[in-house]
């Protein structure tokens, strides 16, 4: 899943583990900088600092051609 920081005014200061491999300080720096990052899990206390980024898939309308061919 992808997550991002809710507010840059409220960065993560605790050393929570977001990856199965273990703690990664680089990942925390990327989250605090405002980037969207791929993680394996979100610790419950971190839910007040981060939010999941959901991708919106466009539905194809009937009769439209996604490749633009006639």
Q: TL;DR?
A:
The protein is α+β, with helices and mostly antiparallel strands and 70 residues long. It contains one helix and three strands, in the order E-H-E-E.
User: What's the arrangement of strands in the largest beta sheet?
Assistant: 2-1-3
* Low-confidence runs of at least 5 consecutive residues: none
Number of distinct beta strands: 3
Number of helices: 1
Q: Give the integer mean of the pLDDT values.
A: 88
Give the overall silhouette.
Answer: elongated
Order of helices and strands: EHEE
**Content-based structural category:** alpha+beta
How many strands, which pairing sense, and closed or not: the largest β-sheet? 3 strands, antiparallel
Radius of gyration: 17 Å
Q: First CA to last CA: what distance?
A: 37 Å
Summarize the amount of helix as a percent range: 10-25%
Q: How much beta, percentage-wise?
A: 5-15%
Number of domains: 1
Topology readout:
Layout: E1 2-5, H1 25-32, E2 37-38, E3 50-53
Antiparallel strand pairs: 1-2, 1-3
Describe the overall structure:
This protein has 70 residues and is α+β, with helices and mostly antiparallel strands. It has one domain. It is 11% helix and 14% strand. It has one helix and three strands; from the N terminus they run βαββ. The protein has one helix at 25-32; strands at 2-5, 37-38, 50-53. Strands 2-1-3 form a three-stranded antiparallel sheet, covered by helices on one side. It is elongated. The mean pLDDT is 88.
């Amino acid at each position: 899943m992808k997550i991002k920081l809710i507010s840059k005014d409220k960065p993560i200061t605790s050393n929570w583990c977001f990856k199965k491999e273990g703690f990664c300080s680089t990942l925390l720096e990327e989250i605090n900088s405002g980037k969207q990052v791929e993680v394996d899990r979100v610790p419950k206390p971190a839910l007040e600092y981060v939010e999941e980024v959901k991708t919106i898939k466009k539905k194809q309308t009937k009769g439209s051609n996604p490749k633009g061919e006639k």
